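Researcher: Re-running this chain for the archive, since the previous output was lost when a drive failed. Same request as before.
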Amino acid sequence: MLGLELGADDYVTKPFSPAELVARVKAVLRRTEGAAAAEILQVGRATIDVGRREVRIGDAPLAFTTKEFELLRFLAERPGLALSRQQILDGVWGYNWFGDARTVDVHVGQVRKKLDGAVRIDTVRGVGYRLEPS
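Model: Regenerated structure tokens:
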């Protein structure tokens, strides 16, 4: 019962039949089939299509690495918020990532270069970065 209250769709008690488990999984998949809607973020003059993992300025697609795309997406989902380098590292690279926080600076520089002013990412001195909504 607690599992359902915490957000589970269904549960099976032991002992259970593998056929019943398969049937329940198929039922959940049928309910969610086609449910994923395209998520498109508009920031500045750039369009971020999350489902297609594509960034465009007008009709021109831009080539982004995986981390550059995730960084831009992370900032675009939090427009106007001053985010620390650590918050960005945790959100894009994950909590278990071990390395220098300055990698955020390098990646932000690359994203700014590729966007060529289409999206404004400000440096917040002593904190990190902020994507300015337009």
